[in-house]
Amino acid sequence: MKRIISFVFMLVFVVALVGCGGEKPKAQEDKKEPAAKEKLKVAFIYVGPVGDGGWSYAHDQGRKYLEQQMPDVETSYIESVPEGADSERVLTELVEKGNKIIFATSFGYMDSVIKVAQKYPDVKFLHCSGYKTAENVGTYFGRMYQARYLTGIIAGKTTKSNTIGYVAAFPIPEVIRGINAFTLGVRSVNPNAKVKVVWTNTWYDPAAEKEAAKSLLEAGADVITQHQDTPGPQQAAEEKGKFSIGYNSDMSKMAPKAVMTSAVWNWGPYYVETVKAIKEGTWKSSQYWGPMSDKIVDLAPYGPMVPEDVKKLVEAKKQEILEGKFDVFTGPIKDQTGKERVAAGQKMTDAEMLSFDWFVEGVDGTIPK
């Protein structure tokens, strides 16, 4: 009897199962984990090491800020990439690795960016400090000359010898523009001061930069500034008991007794805004040149050696710049020969500033051809 009952029970169960189409109870259905959303890959290439304490370091701080603000983005970087053919190879490798946005952070990468961008129209390229664009290539920079002018006021008020040293990388418009803005700031408070320029023809060479600063100190400079990527010139000034003004990032930690302030970059917000626009499909190729009011350029905190009256003078002029009441390259402006290049009340256009190939009055130096 037990066997018959068991057989009948099993038969009923099988018929029921077949009638239901063989479906599994919901509790026993296979549980599939949702696929992890693939992160947007963004890459950066740097002309120097991220530990240079200057240009590449500042860009890498911006990259880290981007990752912090956008967890759905995965970033990577390659440092110490020479300008020229090597950069074309590296850019190509980054695209092949799946990067959809690439930030090329040095002027000399410009032609390589344009070449690679033509081959990969679905990838967006952003080139720092250049002037060539394409449908998938934009340029970006900040009006660092505004911060340079302000640091020039500090230097002009500080110098006792009336000789200020400027260690400069390459004679391109970007660097010449910075030297001119700095000199105009110096001369606005000290018409007798001159800015002596030495070229190194390198972006990153700590030893060469430091030696250039030493030569300027030996020539009588008692304040040193630079358009270079390391704090070598700052350290040279400190070793001689003189003052200095840093560039790219706050260099006071490297030479605390010398650094009065630094003209600094803040790339992070720009990187976040740009990546968001590309993700949302609203990005269009453009030539961004952000002012100080965008906070892409600024001054680092003042060192203890900067007097209060000088701080107030600088802050007042900074406020005029922020409010658009003052423009650095407003005439009258003369060149080294005393010839008037910008008439009184006239403002230089962006095109003119981006093609600077002459020094203002007060610069002691030449522009190599």
Automatic annotation (TrEMBL):
Q: Which segments constitute the ABC transporter substrate-binding protein PnrA-like domain?
A: 40-321
Question: What Gene Ontology terms describe where this protein resides (cellular component)?
Answer: plasma membrane
Please state what the protein is called: Nucleoside-binding protein
Keyword list (alphabetical) reads: Signal
Q: Which organism is it from?
A: Desulforamulus putei DSM 12395
Is Signal among the key words of this record?
yes
Report the coiled-coil segments: none
Which lineage ranks, top first, belong to the organism behind this chain? Bacteria, Bacillati, Bacillota, Clostridia, Eubacteriales
Where does the source fall among the domains of life?
Bacteria
Pfam families documented for this protein: Bmp (PF02608)
InterPro entries from the entry?
A: ABC-Purine-Binding (IPR052910), PnrA-like (IPR003760)
